[in-house]
């Protein structure tokens, strides 16, 4: 009995996720699009371990565009979550309230986590893709510009 109920629940959840994915596509494009980062300092092929563009106005502007075309359909317009996908403004709330070395090392950790999730995407426990990976379309510049935008939005909301 218990096993049966569990299977039914799992099925209902998969169904809901499927509908959610279809809904997200109907309301906005969720196919990864490259980001034009012309105007930003080029960073080369070796990944930096922290966002070099934090607080850079041009990067925030470019990141906002990149976010709008790639992430907003799921994570919400202006990075305000509608509840379908995690609230990205929560990523750095704690770090940005810190000072000095603790702040830098906290932000470095969230930068790395952000980079890994964005490049590889996410799968649920059944192996279904819940977020696409952007490794094939995003340059390092694109990833850090979008993170700079999210940090700027986090500060605005504080
Ligand atoms: C198709 C919908 C979808 C798109 C498009 C999408 N995401 Fe996600 N994202 C999700 C979901 C769902 C999760 C949670 C998945 C999980 O934890 O299993 C997630 C998780 C994340 C996380 C981890 C958040 C946390 O609190 O741990 C980050 C960071 C993230 N997404 C950033 C982005 C960025 C940046 C973009 C655009 C480049 C993007 N996502 C595009 C659906 C999406």
Automatic annotation (TrEMBL):
<keyword id="KW-0349">Heme</keyword>
<dbReference type="InterPro" id="IPR009056">
    <property type="entry name" value="Cyt_c-like_dom"/>
</dbReference>
<keyword id="KW-0408">Iron</keyword>
<dbReference type="InterPro" id="IPR030991">
    <property type="entry name" value="c550_proteobact"/>
</dbReference>
<protein>
    <submittedName>
        <fullName>Cytochrome c-550 PedF</fullName>
    </submittedName>
</protein>
<feature type="domain" description="Cytochrome c">
    <location>
        <begin position="58"/>
        <end position="154"/>
    </location>
</feature>
<dbReference type="GO" id="GO:0009055">
    <property type="term" value="F:electron transfer activity"/>
</dbReference>
<dbReference type="InterPro" id="IPR036909">
    <property type="entry name" value="Cyt_c-like_dom_sf"/>
</dbReference>
<keyword id="KW-0479">Metal-binding</keyword>
<dbReference type="GO" id="GO:0046872">
    <property type="term" value="F:metal ion binding"/>
</dbReference>
<feature type="signal peptide">
    <location>
        <begin position="1"/>
        <end position="26"/>
    </location>
</feature>
<dbReference type="Pfam" id="PF13442">
    <property type="entry name" value="Cytochrome_CBB3"/>
</dbReference>
<keyword id="KW-0732">Signal</keyword>
<dbReference type="GO" id="GO:0020037">
    <property type="term" value="F:heme binding"/>
</dbReference>
């Amino acid at each position: 009995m218990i096993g049966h109920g569990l299977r039914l629940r799992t099925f209902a959840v998969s169904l809901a996720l499927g509908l959610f994915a279809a809904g997200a596509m109907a309301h906005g494009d969720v196919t990864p699009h490259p980001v034009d980062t012309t105007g930003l300092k080029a960073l080369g092929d070796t990944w930096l371990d922290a966002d070099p563009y934090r607080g850079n106005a041009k990067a925030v502007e470019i990141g906002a565009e990149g976010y709008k075309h790639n992430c907003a359909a799921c994570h919400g317009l202006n990075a305000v979550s509608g509840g379908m996908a995690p609230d990205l403004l929560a990523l750095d709330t704690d770090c940005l309230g810190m000072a000095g070395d603790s702040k830098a090392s906290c932000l470095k950790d969230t930068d790395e986590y952000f980079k890994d999730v964005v490049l590889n995407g996410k799968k649920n426990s059944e192996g279904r893709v819940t977020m696409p990976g952007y490794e094939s379309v995003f340059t390092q510049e694109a990833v850090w510009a979008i993170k700079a935008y999210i940090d700027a939005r986090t500060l605005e909301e504080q």
